[in-house]
Amino acid sequence: MSGSPRPIFVVQLHDARRLHYDVRLEVDGVLKSWAVPRGPSLDPVVKRLAVFTSDHDLEYASYEGVHRDAQYGSGAVIVWDAGVYTNLTRDDRRQLVDPAEAIERGHLKVQLHGVKLNGAWAFTRTNGDWLLVKVKDADADPGVDLTVAEPRSVLSGLTIEEMAAT
């Protein structure tokens, strides 16, 4: 999945202790990951909690199935969205900031080019927590909740409930 000249992103819906969305960005050969309990919102006014979690191997980007062990949290996983992204993070002098450095600094802005998610998004660390916010752009749409409107995997076409039943 990483043969692209641009880095990949994946959003996996994971039914572990609680249902949540794992937003993962390819950075320096691994998937940097945030657990987003309520999933991404297309409304720029909505700030979603994004809990920074452990890095995952790039191969994990295409994983779908049911974890029966606790390594990544037991439960069903589907690839809810996937694609590539462009780093948009700039410093005060308008110079592009490397994604790994941007994460270290606590602010990363990316342009997603996915099946479901498109447009600019910002990850911002505040008081130890992270927030995921849709940037106001042509792809922002406060009237649409993609987590409800588009529940199926972009790989298998299964819902999280159908994957859990396999």
From TrEMBL:
It comes from the Bacteria. Residues 12-125 form the DNA ligase D 3'-phosphoesterase domain. Signal peptide: none annotated. It holds the Pfam family LigD_N. InterPro entries: LigD_PE_domain. This is DNA ligase D 3'-phosphoesterase domain-containing protein. The lineage of its organism: Bacteria, Bacillati, Actinomycetota, Actinomycetes, Propionibacteriales.
